[in-house]
Design brief:
- By secondary structure, the chain is of the alpha/beta class.
- The protein has helices at residues 44-52, 84-100, 115-125, 154-162, 177-186, 196-202, 238-249, 272-288, and strands spanning 24-29, 58-59, 64-65, 71-76, 104-109, 130-134, 167-172, 189-192, 210-216, 254-261.
- It has one domain: Arginase, Chain A (3-Layer(aba) Sandwich).
- The protein has eight helices and ten strands.
- The strands form two sheets. Strands 4-1-5-10-9-6-7-8 form an eight-stranded parallel beta sheet, with helices on both faces. A two-stranded antiparallel ribbon has the order 2-3.
- Helix 7 (238-249) links the parallel strand 9 (210-216) and strand 10.
- Helix 2 packs parallel to helix 3 (115-125), helix 6 runs parallel beside helix 7 (238-249) and helix 7 runs parallel beside helix 8 (272-288).
- The radius of gyration is 17 Å and the shape is globular.
- The model has no long low-confidence stretch (mean pLDDT 95).
């Protein structure tokens, strides 16, 4: 896929048209082939872009303006409908190419399985990689209904790849008993229910390390984000997730990429989910993209 052609569809607010000089690249992964409850997250990337038009370009949280960051919206990866294995392979090749050009990748999902090939590509470039995973669900299953390629399995796959001790999960409030037992026995770091407060303890220990951050929108309580496939009561507020993004921005980690997944617009006629997601992407652009 060529990156040097401006995306002709909807773009994230203030996206530039110069790929070569962009520090960050926004791209969509319109895949929901393996979801276990409600489909529709393949429509998330474009709805996030549409909602971004209502944003202010200035962030009082970061005290920065979007004009201060060079970024390019490359549109959605054209994934083969219904074919999970081929889709994951195409995502891997796409990210591998972006990283070879020293771009900061910001992915819009799509179901959470899309994070798995991203990490495979990022880990190849950064063998000391750590993962910050912000989510309602553990996503530590080895399979779901006999299917190893499932949106309930990516974090388990990542633990096996980069080492469970390098995986930090926050906000977790749902999963099988076996998933919580694996987290306890494997050496991974799981923090249930909350995000910002445990992050304050963990971030200093990751200083200087390359870190990838994946955010599932369902970490928010359904009151703040009803537009998702597997909503889970008891979540955090939009304010707390904004605080967490700010904490990461002010840390000494080397954030090397990020994604935000599982926005499913059909279940939220108010569009509050997409509106919140677009604001989180703005804060990620302003806080995590350096240089």
């Amino acid at each position: 896929m060529r990156f040097d052609e401006a995306y002709s569809g909807k773009v994230f607010i203030m996206s530039g048209t110069d790929f070569d000089n962009a520090k960050a690249v926004i791209y969509g992964m319109p895949m929901d082939w393996t979801v276990s409850f409600r489909p529709g997250s393949r429509f998330g990337p474009n709805r996030i872009r549409e909602a971004s038009i209502g944003l202010e370009e200035y962030s009082p949280y970061m005290d920065k303006h979007l004009e201060e960051v060079a970024y390019f919206d490359a549109g959605d990866i054209p994934l083969p409908f219904g074919n999970a294995e081929r889709s994951l392979g195409q995502i891997y090749k796409y990210i591998e190419q972006l990283l070879s050009l020293d771009k900061f990748p910001i992915g819009l999902g799509g179901e959470h399985l899309v994070t798995w090939p991203i990490i495979q590509a990022v880990y190849k470039k950064y063998p000391d990689l750590a993962l910050i995973h912000i989510d309602a669900h553990a996503d530590l299953r080895e399979e779901y209904e006999g299917e190893a390629l499932s949106h309930s399995t990516p974090i388990r796959k990542i633990c096996d790849l980069i080492g469970a001790e390098n995986v930090y999960s926050f906000g977790i409030r749902s999963g099988m008993r076996e998933e919580f037992l694996f987290a306890k026995e494997s050496g991974m770091h799981m923090f249930k229910y909350d995000v910002a407060e445990p992050l304050k303890e963990v971030l200093p220990t990751l200083a200087g390390r390359p870190v990838y951050v994946t955010i599932d929108i369902d970490v928010l309580d359904p009151a703040y984000a009803p537009g998702t496939g597997t909503a889970e009561a008891g979540g955090i507020s939009s304010k707390e997730l904004l605080e967490a993004i700010g904490l990461i921005a002010r840390s000494d980690m080397n954030v090397v990429g990020a994604d935000l997944v599982e926005v499913a617009p059909a279940y939220d006629h108010s569009e509050k989910t997409a509106i919140a997601a677009s604001k989180f992407i703005r804060e990620i652009l302003l806080g995590w993209v350096k240089g």
